[in-house]
């Protein structure tokens, strides 16, 4: 005699909350990350990637805003809390498959060797390692994309910008929350 008990629907009859909803939207710079949360909750990874790029430009300062892109030397001006919030949203929406800290982990596993890293996260293709064409050739869903595929950072002008992001104190082991920017072992 087996009985099946159905789970009651969540209050209000709506969908159950997403892990993205649990992320606290902290911003030292006073930015509103609700649009990013909404895009990621909806699985709109291409839109979320565009929002992330725009947020990095806004966070990097007036020079980046005027230019429309972030120069690697401006990354240090992006607050730790803001990068950690953006990263936490990406991770929560993808079961820890996407995010800058995930990319850093993959990069470290590849001994900071860019060609191997780009292959591992599937940003290049073919024997000649040609960069995928943006945005059409990138994979904007968590099921099919490899770990670390998103968010995208333009590496056509070189790897300095991506390196500055991955080396940012926000992604130091231990979180770098004290703002010193020093690795734990140097404190």
Description:
The structure is a single chain. Helix 1 packs antiparallel against helix 2 and helix 1 runs parallel beside helix 4. The N and C termini lie far apart (63 Å). A two-stranded antiparallel sheet has the order 1-2. Helix content is 36%, strand content 2%. With 187 residues, the chain is an all-alpha fold.
Show the helix and strand layout.
Layout: H1 34-41, H2 45-60, H3 62-67, H4 80-93, H5 100-109, H6 114-120, E1 124-125, E2 130-131, H7 160-166
Antiparallel strand pairs: 1-2
Summary of the model, kept short:
With 187 residues, the protein is mainly alpha-helical. Helix content is 36%, strand content 2%.
Shape: globular
Overall pLDDT: 87
Number of strands: 2
The stretches of 5 or more residues where confidence is low (pLDDT under 50) are 175-187
SSE class: mainly alpha
Quaternary state reads single chain
């Amino acid at each position: 005699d087996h009985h099946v008990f159905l789970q009651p629907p969540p209050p209000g009859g709506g969908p159950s909350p997403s892990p993205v909803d649990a992320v606290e939207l902290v911003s030292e710079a006073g930015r509103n990350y609700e649009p990013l949360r909404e895009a990621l909750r909806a699985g709109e990874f291409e839109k979320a990637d565009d929002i992330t790029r725009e947020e990095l430009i806004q966070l990097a300062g007036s020079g980046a805003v005027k230019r429309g892109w972030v120069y690697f030397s401006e990354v240090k001006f992006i607050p730790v809390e803001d990068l950690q919030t953006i990263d936490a949203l990406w991770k929560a929406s993808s079961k820890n498959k996407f995010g800058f800290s995930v990319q850093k982990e993959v990069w470290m596993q590849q001994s900071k060797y860019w060609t191997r890293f780009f292959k591992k996260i599937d940003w290049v293709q073919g024997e000649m390692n040609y960069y995928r064409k943006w945005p059409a050739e990138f994979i904007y869903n968590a099921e099919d994309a490899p770990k670390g595929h998103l968010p995208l950072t333009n590496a056509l002008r070189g790897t300095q910008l991506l390196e500055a992001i991955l080396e940012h104190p926000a992604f130091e082991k231990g979180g770098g929350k004290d703002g010193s920017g020093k690795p734990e072992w140097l404190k």
